[in-house]
């Protein structure tokens, strides 16, 4: 591929997107989940604000519920003010990274071997860079899109958005006045499918649904006592039994509309049979190899124990013991899930939600979906968009509370051999340079035809 500066066909946004992504990664915006130790969001947000201000935007900087939790908003007016506004949103925070584990420093933003490296490269400073590059290009060139576009760069997504989108929706809903549709992260990336005839097809997965996100605390209590005595009840034992039952439990298979539609498209392209009524959908998925990882977690609710705490001395049986369980629940399954959990943990262990964010699902149709598909096909004739469900969660959970229809669409054409899912929160997180160029072109087409 010719260097960017040597290609007269390359647009302004495409020419600077790699530099912008690299610069964003160099801001250490690690979100520990604690106010005292989370850092960098204000500095990064103010830098984004400066980049937008210098090309003529009237930006608004907002701190969401706590000092330093920076958010930036910029609105580009469209040709038809009567149409609903399209919001393009990205979060500036990232999960922490341990430098000694990485091949390069996680906050170097290094551009090497055809990749931009660093924490946030795919989650999600890649999309933030594309957003910023396109926002700047549109303003500099005087581009008027079909409808208003709101560019939103927000804080605290990696800890559930309490000091980010959740706070903004609760306290500053005016920022989203007129927004009817939104696109955000974890969608639009390509998945290469091998066909029976030896050819390949790229599916671009558009997120139309996501499971709920709930962090549940389990607590067992019993009488404290000396470690050398006999005890009829032991809080640690009661909790351990409950955690073991819950952690080893397999929840029932439930096929949501988004997953069923994705599997239908996948079966068509891969040339395999798929029966949505089959009791062995797991077996059918296993035949597809690594693809199974993408959808396997969206077939069932999950409850994974992640933290344990009990005791303060080796010879003292403690009065209480606690565990934290990461719960991801399919749309429409919350009440049934909680009943199942109660049966598993039993009467001597109590539960409470530390964080509880609803699931979300929309349909894969309408003008916005048509615009996504057209944008992909304009730059990859061998592509096809398909809906899918995300097993995790995004800021869409909060924005949906305002009646906004949300999708995940951050387009990237990926090398078939790249294990993209493993890069999220993983060591040596990186995004291909060519993918950023492709994504910028596709996103430009989408925003100008949506």
UniProtKB/TrEMBL annotation:
<comment type="similarity">
    <text>Belongs to the peptidase M20A family.</text>
</comment>
<dbReference type="InterPro" id="IPR050072">
    <property type="entry name" value="Peptidase_M20A"/>
</dbReference>
<keyword id="KW-0378">Hydrolase</keyword>
<keyword id="KW-0862">Zinc</keyword>
<dbReference type="InterPro" id="IPR001261">
    <property type="entry name" value="ArgE/DapE_CS"/>
</dbReference>
<dbReference type="Pfam" id="PF01546">
    <property type="entry name" value="Peptidase_M20"/>
</dbReference>
<dbReference type="GO" id="GO:0016787">
    <property type="term" value="F:hydrolase activity"/>
</dbReference>
<dbReference type="Pfam" id="PF07687">
    <property type="entry name" value="M20_dimer"/>
</dbReference>
<dbReference type="InterPro" id="IPR002933">
    <property type="entry name" value="Peptidase_M20"/>
</dbReference>
<dbReference type="GO" id="GO:0046872">
    <property type="term" value="F:metal ion binding"/>
</dbReference>
<keyword id="KW-0479">Metal-binding</keyword>
<dbReference type="InterPro" id="IPR011650">
    <property type="entry name" value="Peptidase_M20_dimer"/>
</dbReference>
<dbReference type="InterPro" id="IPR036264">
    <property type="entry name" value="Bact_exopeptidase_dim_dom"/>
</dbReference>
<protein>
    <submittedName>
        <fullName>M20/M25/M40 family metallo-hydrolase</fullName>
    </submittedName>
</protein>
<feature type="domain" description="Peptidase M20 dimerisation">
    <location>
        <begin position="209"/>
        <end position="336"/>
    </location>
</feature>
